[in-house]
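Objective 1b. Sequence-to-structure analysis of XK-related protein.
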Amino acid sequence: MESPNDSFSPLTKPDIPYIDGEMENENINQSDNGANTNTNGARGATGTSSHTSPGVLSLFGRYSFPFLLASSVVKLSIYLNKLYQDSAAVGKYFSDRDINYCIVSAFCLFLPAVLYIIYIVGAYIKDQEEAESKEVGTKVVHGLLLVPWQIKGRVEVLQFSAQRVCQKRPLTPDELEEKSLLERQAQALEFFEEFYAGLIQILLQLYIIITSLDGNTEYKALTGEIIASGLTLMSMMTAVKRRDDGILTGFLSITGWMSIMISRSVSIALATTVIQSWMVIVCLLHAVFISFWITFIAVRTYYEESPTIRFTKKRKLALFFVIFAVFGLPSLTYWPIMFELKKNKRPLIFLFILLVENILFIGLWGVYKEQTAFAKHDHVLVFLAGGLFIIGALFILFYICCKPKYTDQVVYHDMKVCNADSFGMYFDFCDVAFKLTRKQEIETRLKEVREHRIIPR
């Protein structure tokens, strides 16, 4: 079975590194790097020359290294500050004897590492006929060190730029490839840290806000929770956004999913105020149901590719846990519209499931909340959850209509053939979970596909 990280030689020479948006085409000088057949680490065993777009660095030209140094310092500072805030929150709630809040805040520190372990171990077992116990143990230890690896990844990017900060020149193709590899490794770890810690934080913050509306909470404290929720939401969007979106599709995607996330978070927080810890069970049931659905879709892609494939129960179970970690739990607020997950109106089915759940959550809160009479802020919360869901669903539908048909296949082509920079972690997750294949028309008529022309069947 082909490993999800395997590289292979191109059938045709890629002519444009990116499509659909802000990462403009860069003419790559083949005479400079065409003979370079050595790529870094696991990214290049095929001997294919690496093509990496400088992206935003091209705007800074000779000052690319100072910009990269500054952005690396900012990213590292933000991450260290988040670790400090999470740790401080645990200490504060523990000293205040708010044990439940303390436990929830502690999950912000430990849950990302646990899910990362599930993902890397499941991905390994899925691709092995006989998994070695020592390899599984190694991956568990690696996952437990998620926080040090995350810091190490950001420090490596910082070191890369600091060593060249006084050089006034653009990055060479080899340096772009090295930077891309370092950042891609950091982004894989970032997803688990940003999304899962962020999801728990925003639910806790909204829960505190909602339960404080009926009390005499200080305005300053309430404002702080609202600001913290907004910053957490932005970090979650950074973790899941696609990097191949253009100005229009990027605006539609960010606006749509931010609206959906706020609506879902408010609905879940409202229901949590009446059923308390039972909401954890409800969320897990939702994640398990979605994971079973996606696992069925994923297994079918393997049999469609090779009907005689031997896909044991152990490998199916490993695939389920992979999907649970990167698709099931995130489906509480997000659905990646790509590859198999955008076919057969599956995004519409997902939005319908969220709508039904939101109605049930808000109805449950309305029936069992302590004060039977609706206060002014209660109406605001209901209209906020309902209105933002409608707005988010409309933007997502517009996004689906505006996104070019062959975008996913071309991005997948670039990932496999020219080792392009990361387009967003969900492309890698789809490559691990599903049996994705490169379409022949993408290979033979790539330029026409990039120009959004229709390919004859």
